[in-house]
Design brief:
Layout lengths: L1 H10 L4 H24 L43
Length: 82
């Protein structure tokens, strides 16, 4: 498979940017999916020791990937302790 791709790139060098952008997009999407699986509080990998990981979040902890005009360090506690 790699030899076919290498042969095509040698005969058509204009395909090189296509392979670079497709490979970069696939890499970024895999990294984002890994980040969602490992850092999101909605995902529970260990149900025995930590069945509800969303209850262990601090009120000023940022877990969203992108924040718009929000300073999480200045938030007040607005929920009860469980």
């Amino acid at each position: 498979m790699f030899s076919v791709v290498a042969k095509q790139v040698k005969t058509h060098p204009s395909l090189i940017p296509l392979f670079i952008f497709i490979g970069g997009g696939a890499t970024m999407s895999m990294l984002y999916l890994a980040r969602l699986a490992l850092k999101n509080p909605d995902v529970s990998w260990d149900r025995k020791n930590n069945p509800e990981p969303w209850n262990k979040l601090e009120y000023n902890q940022q877990y969203k990937f992108f924040k718009v005009n929000m300073d999480y360090s200045k938030l007040k506690k607005d929920r009860p302790d469980f």
